[in-house]
Amino acid sequence: MFSHNPGTPISPIVAPEVLCYPLVDRLAVTVTVTHSRSVIVSCNHGSRRHLVVTTEQSSLIVSGPMAPNQCGATSTSSVLVVANALLQSDVLTVVKRATSEYIGEPWDWHDFVDLADRASHPCGIFRGRVLSVFAKLSTDPGGMELFEAELKGLVLLRTAAKARTPTPVGSGRFVVHHGTSLLLSEGLFGRHGDSRTSEDWRAMGQALAALHRTRGHHFGLDDFDGFFGPLPQDNRSTGSDRWSDFYAERRLAPRLREAFNSGYLPMTLADGVERIIRRIGSFSGPEPQPTLLHGDPQPNNFVSTDVGPVLVDAAPYFGHPEADLALVDWTQPVPAGLFDGYKVEIPIDSGFFERRELWRLHAYLAAVAVVGQTALGRSSLQGISSAIEFYR
Predict the structure, then answer these.
(1) What residue ranges do the domains of the chain occupy?
(2) What's the pLDDT tens digit per position in 9-23?
(3) Radius of gyration of the chain (CA)
């Protein structure tokens, strides 16, 4: 959920035998890796250079000629790179064993696509001859519980709303060793970001509307709790029929505690959020029917394919459809086509844009709690401040 900015340093991993992903201040670079120790680095303006991987203490260094007029680096520059933890030998052993058992024959990978910039966990796709595999790694002791909730959420979207979701590899979750776990599914190679077409964006809006046509009996979810990013998500009903009560008690109040306890939320902003919670019924608009939500429908959680969008990384429950609509563009702008596609299926209430920041408030608080020191954390503090001013 909380994506790494390419300029944000990540702790390097001691793994000189593996290939790696470069992170450079203000320099957009990507890497194509193979089983050999050579890599191909692609820079901002399309420049591609074959570089050499060497080891320096606990970091990996890529060095070689990089055109200064295209990449902003000198011909003698070295680029600090960080290995994706999925490429550690014990993790690879589990990936290969689980995939081999799943397809019924020996499986190996020949290429790795690092997707760490799209998620809060190390993740990527192992390209194989018979099958490509998406993998996500958790080093949290509660990782298996997190992945179980994610898999249950995707099953719910698939069975209740006929949504396209990834196919798990076997059980979908695996223990590497104590405190480290894996989520595995069949790899999807779709369009992201600027590679999406206008029809892709419209299809994303239509897929979200398809979820919202599925109704529940009350706000929340009886079957299981979930996670918003790495944070636990309490889906229990409040016993009230009012959406504002559920949102205040199960979304805002827990996130407020987590953000304040992180040390990144000033007391003045915490007090302002508490004032909003006390008066939330006056800001919430018409009472909605409980609607199946994705829970975290930012663009990275849709994979645009030729047969339509595939929904990933969901945190579902039954709530206000505006809560999903508010989150599709809370971290980055999206084309109007997404909302146009949604409106083809379901109208959007004219008051939504006045309530949008209210429904984003729990996400702002979550970002402060998890990544308060980053650019996203700082922009979320500004979002909280603006919401407090607006909902006076």
Answers:
(1) 20-83, 89-186, 195-390
(2) 223 333 333 333 333
(3) 22
